[in-house]
Specification:
With 79 residues, the protein is mainly alpha-helical. The chain contains five helices and no strands.
């Protein structure tokens, strides 16, 4: 996988590379979830996005914080 990423990195301009490498915003996390079809499962637990859409007021902050923490940890370990 890293070979592909390194190859693609050569083809991407510095401007776009900066945009791709910047951290997600809270708004982008919410927008991504809202773009997912409500009956599609997010993972191995088969929880659909419909649950998150319906309970966003309850779980939204926690879900968003989790996604942002995962991203930061991923960037830290693989950059």
């Amino acid at each position: 996988m890293w070979v592909v990423i390194l190859f693609v990195g050569v083809l991407i301009t510095q401007k776009y590379k900066g945009e791709l490498e910047r951290p997600f915003t809270r708004e982008e996390v919410v927008e991504a979830l809202n773009m997912m079809h409500p009956t599609k499962a997010l993972g191995i637990d088969d929880t659909s996005t419909h649950l998150y859409h319906q309970l966003w007021e309850v779980v939204g902050n926690e879900v968003t914080n989790f996604v942002l923490r995962v991203e930061v940890n991923y960037l830290y370990h693989f950059s």
